[in-house]
């Protein structure tokens, strides 16, 4: 039996549950503090908005379903998000964290055209409202499903090298009126939006993270204030700062005055009392209302394997970031600076540097290495639910229930006679 997509699997489980419940009713079956440390965890809701199925150039009918995912940043804030790797599945149970594009899983292979993907996200739906997008792209009949499909297809063009067929290569679809579609061809609106986005895209820089503390690691001697540290944030309000792991430590500004809040770009230090033993502490920054910009990448926390998602609109989130501060009184140097080992650790954690963005459209797919489409993006073909094995299970269950009820009625009549 062919493997089921997650979507089909959920329907199958629901169908089986319905049958089991029905048979039970008929009397034929008898039923038998680490969390606090996790900051800025995002998750993918199940209520994404489906777009049209897109069909790719090449032999056969290679197609994929499209979705504008609902990425929940926290309990009060969510943003629309697209996937950037057609070959990966979304794990709805996975914890996501905001990350730089250079921190994306290496197997994704989509860093080369990240700058073009960022342009698409900032110039298409939903970052631009549907009416504005219709005007800019010159597609007055564009609807929401088509906007999602055209945008996702353009992203995959740059991130995975897939392309939609040229209008002349779609056969009868080349002459379709707006809103029309024959067979498995892309709708005229999806094709037009895809062409507009891929042909107009420019190299666009990655948006700033919602909150960071720089550098991530600082070391020095306990005899002097340790730092400087700097908060970078999209929040317009001051950011709260605190320290954990050193009871006698105090956060101070450049003049040595204790502070509990700092503004973006302001330098601050960690001051220790005299004769404190060598050790380490965490410095935390918390922003109540930081902005997550369109183009920010979200990946599985701690290397969890799941589809990388990219924010498609601006959102607001309560964010937390931290830096590690270490000190050693045995050090002979009174200066305070990031140690070579700390710099090496930071570089190692950050991953390889991002290559220069290309200014040309993404590569065309190779016939020798066809694109691999993840199971959760495999489109459900034109078979209705009752035409699948899931439908057959439901029908069989209803038939058994009916038979069971009939048998009970017949048995009661015999006892009465």
Percentage of β-strand residues:
15-25%
The biggest sheet, with number of strands, parallel, antiparallel or mixed sense and barrel status, is: 7 strands, antiparallel
Total helical segments: 8
Given the helix and strand composition, which structural class is it? alpha+beta
User: What ranges have pLDDT less than 50 throughout 5 or more consecutive residues?
Assistant: 1-38, 169-176, 331-360, 382-396
Overall tally of structural domains: 3
Question: What order do the helices and strands follow?
Answer: HHEEEEEEEHHHHEEEEEEEEEEEHH
Q: Average the pLDDT over all residues and give the rounded result.
A: 76
Rg, rounded, reads 28 Å
Helix content: 25-40%
Given the C-alpha coordinates, what overall shape results? Answer: elongated
Find the count of extended strands (DSSP E, 2+ residues): 18
Distance between the termini: 49 Å
Give a brief description.
This protein has 417 residues and is α+β, with helices and mostly antiparallel strands.
What does this structure look like?
The chain is of the alpha+beta class and 417 residues long. The protein has helices at residues 6-25, 34-37, 114-122, 130-137, 144-160, 188-200, 340-350, 389-416, and strands at residues 43-44, 49-50, 54-55, 63-64, 67-72, 78-83, 96-99, 211-214, 217-220, 226-233, 239-244, 250-252, 261-262, 267-271, 279-292, 297-300, 309-311, 315-327. Strands 1, 2, 5, 6, 7, 16 and 17 form a seven-stranded antiparallel sheet that branches. It has a five-stranded mixed sheet with strand order 9-18-15-11-13. A hairpin with a 5-residue loop joins strand 5 (67-72) and strand 6. The longest helix is centred in the C-terminal third of the chain and has 28 residues, at 389-416. The two termini are 49 Å apart. The relative contact order is 0.19.
């Amino acid at each position: 039996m062919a493997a089921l997509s997650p979507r089909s699997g959920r329907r199958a489980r629901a169908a089986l549950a319905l049958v089991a419940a029905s048979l039970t009713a008929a009397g034929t079956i008898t039923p038998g503090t680490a969390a606090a440390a996790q900051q800025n965890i995002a998750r993918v809701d199940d209520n994404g908005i489906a777009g049209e199925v897109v069909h790719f150039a090449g032999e056969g009918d290679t197609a994929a379903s499209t979705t504008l995912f609902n990425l929940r940043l926290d309990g009060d804030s969510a943003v629309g998000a697209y996937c950037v790797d057609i070959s990966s599945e979304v794990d709805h149970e996975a914890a996501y964290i905001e990350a730089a594009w250079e921190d994306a899983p290496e197997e994704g292979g989509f860093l080369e055209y990240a700058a073009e993907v960022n342009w698409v996200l900032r110039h298409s739906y939903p970052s631009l409202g549907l009416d504005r997008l219709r005007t800019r792209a010159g597609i007055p009949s564009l609807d929401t499903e088509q906007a999602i499909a055209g945008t996702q297809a353009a992203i995959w063009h740059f991130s995975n090298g897939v392309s939609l067929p040229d209008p002349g290569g779609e056969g009868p679809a080349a002459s379709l009126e707006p809103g029309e579609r024959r067979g498995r061809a892309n709708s005229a609106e999806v094709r037009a939006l895809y062409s507009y986005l891929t042909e107009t895209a420019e190299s666009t820089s990655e948006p700033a993270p919602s909150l960071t503390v720089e550098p991530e690691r600082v070391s020095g001697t306990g005899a002097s204030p340790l730092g400087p540290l700097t908060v970078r944030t999209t929040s317009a309000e001051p950011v709260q700062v605190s320290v954990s792991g050193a009871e006698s430590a105090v956060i101070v500004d450049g003049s040595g005055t204790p502070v509990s809040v700092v503004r973006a770009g302001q330098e601050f230090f960690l001051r220790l009392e005299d004769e404190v033993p060598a050790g380490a502490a965490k410095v935390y920054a918390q922003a109540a209302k930081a902005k997550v910009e369109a183009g920010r990448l979200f990946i599985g926390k701690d290397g969890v394997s799941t589809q990388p998602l990219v924010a498609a609109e601006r959102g607001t989130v309560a964010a937390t970031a931290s830096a590690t501060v270490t000190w050693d009184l045995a050090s002979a140097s009174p200066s305070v600076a990031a140690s070579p080992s700390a710099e090496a650790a930071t570089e190692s954690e950050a991953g390889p540097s991002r290559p220069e963005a290309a200014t040309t459209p993404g590569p065309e797919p190779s016939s020798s290495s066809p694109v691999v489409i993840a199971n959760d993006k495999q489109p459900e073909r034109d078979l209705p639910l009752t035409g699948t094995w899931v439908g057959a299970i439901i029908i069989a269950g209803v038939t058994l229930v009916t038979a069971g009820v009939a048998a009970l009625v017949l048995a009661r009549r015999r006892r009465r006679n």
